[in-house]
Each structure stands twice: as structure tokens, then as C-alpha cells.
Amino acid sequence: MKDIGEHTRVAPPERYRDLLGYRKSLDEKDSPKTLQQWNIEISNDMVGVTGRVLPPETILLGSKQSVNQPDKPDWTNILRTDSISQSVHLKSQKWVVIYPRRESDNANSFISNLRQVANPMNINIEDPLTIEIEDDSAITYTNALKKTLKPDFQLVVFIHPTKQKSRYDELKQLLTTIMPLPSQCICGKTLSKEKTLRAVCLKICLQIQAKCGGELWRVKIPLTNTMIVGIDVYHD
Fold first, then answer.
1. How far is CA 103 from CA 110, 111, 191, 234, in A?
2. Measured between alpha carbons, how far is 178 from 44 in angstroms, rounded to an integer?
């Protein structure tokens, strides 16, 4: 994905340079004749417009620490040693981890590392209810959850040996329509990489907190009693 990103997430200067290169290529071979037949004329340069750069927002964390780094809008690493704005504690036996037998080592490593990265962020994660199943079919996961589900459960975590969209869709549909419950699906292969395991668990921990109603960080909003709605108008 990183290699693909080098081609899909191009910085503005490089994108501008490539477009000018493409424009220059239209002056070669039969392109000018074809454009003339179509009555199309393309300028040698792009249209310049005057824009504005908005000041960066100040991000507030749980310890009142503020983050303001416009050149690098990523403050995930700061949370390794700071608390989130408002945390949701996962109580003992009130959250479930379901995994096939062959993923038992990855499941244990995940639970251990999740608790380690959560502690500095002032998130208390107690022992989950762990359920080991025989295979990785969607029906096996579903049956295991139905047998143990209680009204006060906070979260269910599924660990899958491989990525399978049909299984993922079936479980997500179950947990959003029939058995409403926050859920997190994890590929066992992701948890098997020891060098990146803590970083992966940190991101998963933040995702779980957001799904369970936690508040990761805040921004200063001068308005009160106001709902702000953002609407996308373009996707590249």
C-alpha cells in the first residue's frame, strides 16, 4: 500500500509538474492537428487563483496539553504518553475477543499489548471474555457470540486469520441490525508482526474508544448549542 500511495497521493508541486509535462506532450506528433480539428485550445500553463491558508486548529488532549503542528497534522504518537480527552473503560468480562484456535497466540499478544498502550492514555482495560472457536466461518463466529452475548456487553473483537469481505460484511450486518454492539475486526496477520504490534494496537485502541463513545481529542469551538454539518462536494 505504501508503494501504491507514492503514485496516488502525489504532492501539489509534483502534480503540477506532471500536468505541465502532459500539456507539453500535446505539442508533439499529431496531437496539435487533432486538437485543431476538435476546435480545442489548451493553455501552456494553469489558471492562477488567489487562495487563503486557514490557521491550524489547536488540538486539546486529556491533560490540557495542546497540539499545534500544521506541517504534520498527526498527533497519534503524542498519545503514547498522554491521556485522551475522555476515555471509556472496558470492564472485566464485559468485552469479548473471539478467535479461531490457530490465532490463540495472536489473540493473547493483542490483549496484552492493548492494555499496555491503553494505560498511558488513562484507559483502563480489564480482562476480556475470550472465546476460542474451531474454524473461521462467519456462522461459527455468530454462534459463539449468540451463546455468550449479554445486554451489558461493551464490545466484541473478532480476530480473523485472513481478510474475507463476505465474512466481514455478514458479521457487521449482524452487529448493526440484529445484535447492536460496537465491534472491531482484526486480521491475525497484522498482529503477527512483532515490530509493528504496539503501533497497531495503539491505533486499534483509539478506534475502539471512538466506537464505544470515548472522546479522543477536542478543538476549541467558540459557538454553543450549534451543530456543524460538513458536506463533501468532491472526491479525487
1. 10, 12, 9, 41
2. 59
> CA nearest 132: which of 169, 106, 114, 170?
106
pLDDT band at 64 (very low <50, low <70, confident <90, very high): low
- Cell triple for 83: 491521556
Per-residue pLDDT at 2: 64
Share of the chain above pLDDT 90, in %: 49
Which burial class, exposed, middle or buried, applies to 98 when counting CB atoms under 10 A from its CB (0-12, 13-18, 19+)? buried
How far is residue 127's CA from residue 123's CA, in Å, rounded to a whole number? 13
- Other beta carbons less than 10 A from residue 46's beta carbon: 10
In one-letter notation, the amino acid at residue 195 is K
Residue 11: band (very low, low, confident or very high) from pLDDT cuts 50, 70, 90: confident
Cβ 89 vs Cβ 123: under 8 Å: yes
141, pLDDT greater than 90: yes
- Tell me the three cell numbers of residue 202: 495503539
Distances (CA, A) of 135 to 99, 101, 165, 167: 9, 7, 16, 12
- The residues facing 160 across adjacent strands are 187
- Look-up: residue for cell 472526491? 235
Q: How far apart are CA 98 and CA 142, in angstroms?
A: 10
Number of Cβ atoms within 10 Å of the Cβ of 201:
23
- Read off the C-alpha cell for 214: 470515548
Q: DSSP E strands: which ranges in the chain?
A: 59-60, 66-67, 95-100, 129-133, 155-160, 183-187, 218-219
